[in-house]
């Protein structure tokens, strides 16, 4: 999985006044969990742009004055009106400990059903995976090539070599639905066939 580096500074004071002062200065108060003890730090709001405002997922290297931590974003709080980032929680990664996170689904292939006039519906835009940090995928591939009209692609048909997919076996990742136009064409064809049969009689 791709990584983004966030440069910040450790916070010595974590009270309300210090937090307010940090936000007023354009900084985001953050906490890193998962180590021996929580690490409080701040970083510029613009530093999180490529982490937060993207459909992709990344691991994070938190650089606090030269001391680095590998982590993932665990929680984020936005201001209800301005949508400014108010607070962020990170979780430290350890090479020998599995981690759970959601990654995007990437559709590949050309569905036979779509080419025949069906409509592709992506039921799961993200899937929850569990893996060691080095095995976390950037995305999960959903191959729709063999989907005929009316078919569904289940999570059990999605390859997961170095990671586990944490979903029930009956979870539908994608499906090809019959479009209204295709349904109408099928009904008209059936009607025409029925009338042709009547004429023959």
UniProtKB/TrEMBL annotation:
**Entry-linked Gene3D superfamilies:** Ribosomal protein L25, beta domain (2.170.120.20), Ribosomal Protein L25, Chain P (2.40.240.10)
> Which stretches make up the Large ribosomal subunit protein bL25 beta domain?
98-178
Q: Which residues cross the membrane?
A: none
Name the UniProt key words of this record, in alphabetical order. Answer: Ribonucleoprotein, Ribosomal protein, RNA-binding, rRNA-binding
Q: Does the keyword Iron apply?
A: no
**SUPFAM superfamilies membership:** Ribosomal protein L25-like
Organism superkingdom:
Bacteria
Q: Which GO terms describe its cellular component?
A: ribosome
Q: Which NCBIfam families match?
A: bL25_bact_ctc (TIGR00731), PRK05618.2-2 (NF004132)
Q: What is this protein called?
A: Large ribosomal subunit protein bL25
Species name for this entry?
A: Flavobacterium rhizophilum
